[in-house]
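User: Sequence in, structure out. Go.
Assistant: Echoing your sequence, followed by the structure tokens.
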Amino acid sequence: MTAMDLKLIKMLSDHYWIKRDTVVDKIAFKGRTFYNKFEKVNESISQSIIDQHLKGDITIAHSIVNKHNKVENIVIDYNGRDPERFYHKAQLLLREEGYINFTAYTTKTDGHLHVYIHKGHTTLTEAIQLGKMISMKLASKQPKQWKMFPNSDVPDEYNILALPYEVYAKERGASWSKHM
């Protein structure tokens, strides 16, 4: 994974989250209790920290939502068993919906993918609505084995994703897209 591959995400770099071995925070949200193992570090994320993450020494996550409630990416966190089939169906759906810039990354767990849909400055509520619409359309084609981010059903501390490990596939523009 190169620094250029990570720049495709346009992740927030003014802070990051580090996974601890114990529960850092107990959060009550919408009648549910969440036990957070990620601690927020209010420092800029450096290449040495990213390298430690890629080696597996530590686990680092980045926030999806910035402090102005804007989102750069809508993310599909696929946790199924057949990433090739899932990516193929997701790719076709995203192209059909007019999303021409998206990147799939592998995660620490084999067979799991994070598909970053590069939407640009989008309000949090619009991103959540778009994520639900994409999820609904994907669910009509295959069993639901993913979560969408950002997500309104979890607290802000849970709208984070671990940094990916390597690029699975990239999609950058297509002249035949109906929304160009």
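User: And one key feature?
Assistant: The two ends are 30 Å apart (CA to CA).
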